[in-house]
Amino acid sequence: MNNNQLLKSRYQWLVYCGLILIFIAAAWIMIQNEGLIQFSADHDITIPFWHNWVISGALLLLILLLPGNSSDNNPFKNENRKVVVHQSTILTTLAFLLFIGFLLVPSDDVFVYFPIFKFLLLLTVPVLMFGIYKEKRSKNHCLSSHTYLKDNQWIYPSIITVVWIILYFFSPFASPEVPGYEMDLIVLIIGASFSFLMNSVLEELFYRVWLQTRLEVLLGTWPAIMASSLLWAIWHMAIQGGDSADIAFSNVIINQGVTGLFLGFLWAKYRNVWVLIIIHGLMNFPLQILAGLF
Questions:
Q1: Least confident stretch, 69-78, 105-114, 138-147
Q2: How far apart are alpha carbons 37 and 183 in whole angstroms?
Q3: Which pLDDT value is given to residue 216?
Q4: What is the Cα–Cα distance from 76 to 81, expressed in whole angstroms?
Q5: What is the 3-state secondary structure (H, E, C) of the chain?
Q6: Per-residue pLDDT at 151
Q7: Which of residues 106 and 231 earns the better pLDDT score?
C-alpha cells in the first residue's frame, strides 16, 4: 500500500464526519426554515438549499468524469514533511482565528473589522510565514512542470466553468435575480474591485492554494478538501444565514460548505487558481449586476 492509499484510509473519517455534519445541517434547515437558505450576504433573498446541491453535485460528477489524476500533481509531495506540518498547522489556526474573531465582534461592526481581519490573518501572517520558511522548490516541484497539468490545466477547467455558468445563472436551479446596487457607478466599481480582491482572490489563495494543497499531502485529497471547505464555510456565519446561531451555522455548512467541495476538487485536479477566482467572483458579483453596468 503506497503513501496515498495509507492517507486515504487513515483520514477518511474526516470525509464521513463532514458529510454527516452537512446532512445534519440540511435536516435542521428543513425543520427550522423549510429548506430555505440565504445564499448571499448582500440581501435576504432565500433559495432551497438543494438548488446549490444539484449544481455542485453535477459539477463534482463532471470533474470526476473528465480526464486527469489528482493524486500526482501536488507541489508539496516531495517537500520536508515537518515543514508542511508546521505550515498547515499555522494556516489552519489562522482559519479558526478568523472564524472566532468574527464571532467575537459585535454584529453591527463585522464589516468594519472584515478587511482588517482578512488582510491580517489570510494574507499578512501567511506571507510572513512563507518568508520565514523561505520556500525554494526546484523546477521539478512546480505545478507547471507536470505534463498532465501542461496538457489539461485550461481546457477542462474552462469546460467546467462554462457548465457552472449555465447551471448557476440559466438553469431551473439558477440563483434568483438579485436587486441592483443603488450607488454611483464609480463607487460601485471601486467597491466591487475591493470585494473581488478581498473575497475571490484572497479566499481562493488562502483556503485552496495555500491550505488545501498542504493538507492534501498530510491527510489525502478528499479529507483535505472537506477540511478546507468547512473552514472556509464557517467564517461566513458572521455575515449571512440569520440571527440565530444554529440557523446561520447550518446555512453556511450546506451552502458554502458544499460549494467548497466543488471548488476544492476542481483545484485538486487541475490546479488552476484563475478559474476558481473567476467562479468565486461571479458568485459574489453576479452576471445580472455586471450587465447592469453597461
A1: 138-147
A2: 27
A3: 95
A4: 9
A5: CCHHHHHHHHCHHHHHHHHHHHHHHHHHHHHHHCCEEECCCCCCCEEEHHHHHHHHHHHHHHHHHCCCCHHHCCCCCCCCHHHHHHHHHHHHHHHHHHHHHHHHCCHHHHHHHHHHHHHHHHHHHHHHHHHHHCCCCCHHHCHHHCHHHHHHCCHHHHHHHHHHHHHHHHCCCCCCCCCCCCCCHHHHHHHHHHHHHHHHHHHHHHHHHHHHHHHHHHHCHHHHHHHHHHHHHHHHHHCCCCCCHHHHHHHHHHCHHHHHHHHHHHHHHHCCHHHHHHHHHHHHCCHHHHHHCC
A6: 61
A7: 231
Residue 204, all three cell numbers? 481562493
Distance CA 224, CA 217 (A): 8
Q: Which residues pair with 47 in a beta bridge?
A: 37
Min mean pLDDT across 14-28, 72-86, 247-261 is at 72-86
Predicted confidence at residue 289, as pLDDT, reads 54
**pLDDT classification of 140: cutoffs 50, 70, 90:** very low
Distances from the Cα of 173 to the Cαs of 49, 169, 176, 252, 288, in angstroms?
A: 10, 8, 9, 18, 16
Average pLDDT of the chain is 87
Other CB atoms within 10 A of residue 259 CB? 23
